[in-house]
């Protein structure tokens, strides 16, 4: 059953006096970390933990874009079984990469980007994956979300990966007030304590998938409900 929230919450984005403090963020992150520990780790995080290979993190992240985790996991396993390095990928044809990663979304375009990335890494970086944001952003098919995830999860360096879940939840809590993910990243870099940067995405993504959903979030089961301003929420469960 849907429950209507207090209507004024939807207008809080325009109220500069409503803002979540970092003192409360410490409590929020502790509770969310406990909650997501009961859920499956996102596939890119699993690959990072199991392989310790930034290149495989990069490729699996590209595969994961607009694709379900189960599909990404299966596609990554098929591809890495036949080619788990830039050099080995260059031994394949684009069609072979495409067949291996199907049915991830935009699999033909992703196969083209993956093949091109392998060539660039071999030619310019001795087959190594760059660990800085700007160089990663210069690679085909790599946007800010992917680049930040490679830096943070792949290399363990401070970076904030902002996707739709991170953007939505950070604003819903009234921790930030932004309109686009790229803007959210810049604001979070200034406000969020650096100790949370690496894990912020890993924690908020599963939380956003299971409880803090875009429409009608499960506020009655939320571990941080007393700290959340529910900005923009009209109905919840």
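^ Assign residues to that structure.
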């Amino acid at each position: 059953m849907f429950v209507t929230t207090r209507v004024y919450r939807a207008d809080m984005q325009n109220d500069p006096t409503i803002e979540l403090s970092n003192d409360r963020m410490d409590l929020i992150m502790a509770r969310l970390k406990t909650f997501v520990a009961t859920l499956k780790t996102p596939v890119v995080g699993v690959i990072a933990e199991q392989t310790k290979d930034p290149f495989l993190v990069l490729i699996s992240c590209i595969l994961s874009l607009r694709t379900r985790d189960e599909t990404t996991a299966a596609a990554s396993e098929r591809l890495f079984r036949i080619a788990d390095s830039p050099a080995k990928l260059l031994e394949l044809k684009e069609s072979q990469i495409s067949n291996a990663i199907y049915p991830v979304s935009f699999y033909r375009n992703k196969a083209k980007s993956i093949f091109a990335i392998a060539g660039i890494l071999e030619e310019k970086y001795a087959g190594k994956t760059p660990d800085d944001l700007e160089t990663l952003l210069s690679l085909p098919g790599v946007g800010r979300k992917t680049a930040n995830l490679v830096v943070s999860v792949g290399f363990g360096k401070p970076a904030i990966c902002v996707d739709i879940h991170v953007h939505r939840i950070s604003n819903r809590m009234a921790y930030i007030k932004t309109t686009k993910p790229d803007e959210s990243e810049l604001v979070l870099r200034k406000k969020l304590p650096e100790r949370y940067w690496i894990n912020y995405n890993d924690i908020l993504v599963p939380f956003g998938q299971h409880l803090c959903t875009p429409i009608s979030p499960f506020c009655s089961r939320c571990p941080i409900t007393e700290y959340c301003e529910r900005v923009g929420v009209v109905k919840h469960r």
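Residues 1-17 have pLDDT under 50 and may be disordered.
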